[in-house]
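Hey everyone, long-time lurker, first post.

I ran two proteins through the pipeline my lab uses and got sequence/structure pairs for each. Pasting them in order. The first:
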Amino acid sequence: MTDTLRPAETPVLDAGPLTSDGPQKLKRSIGIVGGTLLTLSCVTPASTLFVVVPDLFGSLGTATALTIAIGSLLCIAVAFCYSELGTLIPSAGGEYAMVSTMAGRLAGWLVFVLSLLVVMIVPPVIAMGTADYLAPIVHLDPAVAGAGVMLLATLAGLLDLRANAWITGVFLVLEVIAAAVVAVLGFAHSERGAGSLVSMQVAGSGATRTP
């Protein structure tokens, strides 16, 4: 199976030293540490924890914990698929290269369009969620604060990979510290037991309104 998915090897011809008109190779600008920081920053669920989960608790109630647990199991299976396909198909095309090799170019383009939609939707959602936390501090309209977050993220994206690796590394440390502080404070001041996480209750659903 592995041999059938690997591209056919072509002989490499020794063309001698490269001239100014010859092809230029990409420079390796990040090492193991930088690559690890970028990868961990992509897979850490800090943005989901602070932006999406509060809304889930408001709509799903205590069933949110069970939902996250089921989603985590699915993510583990997807991670194994990514690991296997990434090893069998050593290409920089990501999901497009994987799906195109396994299911054809049409399926690959559909995945590409889906990834494009995700890239267009997720950053604004995270920016607006970040703006909700910044608005009480900077005293700005959440829309303006969200636009500022998007602008800063765009400017950071214009930097080289080495700079982005350290920027994302710094924010990764801040995310882990913030998540740890929230977890410690939350569990240290809990009002109900762990069984409430699977009790399937929504806040205010059992309340009665008196005239």
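...and the second, right after it:
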Amino acid sequence: MKCYSRWITVFFFGLIAIGQYLGGQLLGTETDRYVWALESNAAGANTSQSEGYVAVIDMDMMILPGTQSYLEHAISEAENGGAKLLVVKLNTPGGILQTTQRMIQAMFQSKVPIVVYISPTGGTATSAGVFLTMAAHVAVMAPGTSIGSAHPVSGDGKDIEGDMRKKVEEATTALVKSVTEQRGRNIEWVEKAVRESVSLTDREAVEQGVVDYVAADVRELIKKAAGREVVIEENTSRLEDYSDLPIRVIPIDFRDEVLNVLSNPNVAAILWLIATTGISIELYNPGLIFPGVFGVISLVLALAVSQIIPLSQGGLVLLVLGGLLITAEFFFASGILAAGGIISMMLGLLYLVDVTQAPGLVVSKSVVFPIGTVLGTYLFFVIRAAARSRKQEPLTGAEGLIGQIGEVRETASAHGKIFVNGELWNATTESGIIPAGESARIVGVMPGMKLKIKALTDE
């Protein structure tokens, strides 16, 4: 059982390491709810807050539920705080389609004009990022940025094949065309972006009517926005010159940051693997507590993730099957069940995300295979150690005393007594006489529950 315990210890060190990694992904967000931008010029600094401000959010991330919450909170704060303009600095590879749809709805319902600003230089708005850019009241790009490649792909980054491709393609095309038409932008190009995965540079995007203009920074963006017409709640208005207003950066809330981390399918993969292993160990050896606690916590988080990101039924079935096979292995110790369970779980994780709702969102093979290999190796040794422990016949009664040392209470030769483990036993020596008060080792058990002992001095 000592070997088994050592592997349990290794398991917990692994959990701690994973926890530290996830914690590092969560920390580092701004502690202040608002941060005044340093780029405010002297005139802007002297402007009273009652005259308004320009709100800015930095959306350099995938489009996930935490991103949606970030945008909705920013819109709410901008509306309630008297912001004249909300600038969304966007740099994204895409994300979940359902989440994107909800973000578009929030943008259309906003009472504050929204400017999507694709930045910084080298940044891009691809896939879902194209949809968000088209939904903006004003669309702007920084020099050296790009937009496009909105063609939906499968979880492994490859093209979707067959009827599923047509279904996903038609759904995404209909969405982006509807949004683009309402904002009066180039419908033909956005359809090509979805069907043919075309992209444009900042200058090309302006020339083809995909975005409104190019700006080097937020100040230039604000200045160029003056005089442009926007539609807010079906009312057309003209933007004023807000270049003298202060700029307020709204950082992402810690809860939204956590939500985005949990929405990452790679994190979901880690949680499922920890949950299966921890719960399986606890079921086999009740009372260890820690594997069960960590396993249940991981399972709850994994189930929460399943409500956040769209999952495929096939992937879930494979995950459940894998968990059942691994659990069964702890009771039958055949090796085949564990192998089948690990393979089933890894396949389930690879096909976990529903690509019809989250094109491009992927559980990385570089995460699944190493974790599956490490946990598979770990389970192999734990299961084997547990199997060997179960095959050993338990020693009870007098036989359990063999090898232990006791104190001779009555001089022993053919007959005597020895005190061991709090009990007094009849004893006989292996050879010679052992005086009372000496220590002796139990070397065997005689008929009639008499212990055979040997003086320590004879060893």
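Reply from user beta_strand_b:
Welcome! Quick read of the second one: The chain has three domains: 2-12+257-391, 33-252, 397-458. The first strand starts at residue 35 and ends at 36.
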